[in-house]
Amino acid sequence: MALTRSYKHTIAERAQRDPAFAQALLDEAATLFLNGEPEISRVILRDLVNATVGFEGLAKGTAKPSKSLHRMLSASGNPSMDNLAAIFAVIRKALGVDMQVHGVPTA
User: Fold this and answer.
1) Spatial CA neighbour of 83 closest among 71, 94, 75
2) Span 14-61, pLDDT tens digits
3) Which distant-in-sequence residues (6+ apart) come within 8 Å of 6 by Cβ?
4) Contact 48, 29 (CB under 8 A)
5) Which pTM was predicted?
6) What domain of life (predicted)?
């Protein structure tokens, strides 16, 4: 049986009704970025933006045009560190969470 529903809608609905899931997405995006997988991190951030503040809300929070933000958060996007920090800040505020980073020994 083929899937008839976009995974993006499923993610958005779950993130909207389950704050722990939304926070886990944010944690995963940050972890992926810090571990050298920025493409996947940007796609997760894009899904999280769609599920929370939307690109117009993100544009207001970052003072950047929404079209630029769409490009930044595409798999091939290239946001500056300042823009990425602003994006994380808007999402963190929307979710009501702070972030902490901890290094762990490599396996």
Assistant:
1) 71
2) 999 999 999 999 999 999 999 999 999 999 999 999 999 999 999 999
3) none
4) yes
5) 0.88
6) Bacteria
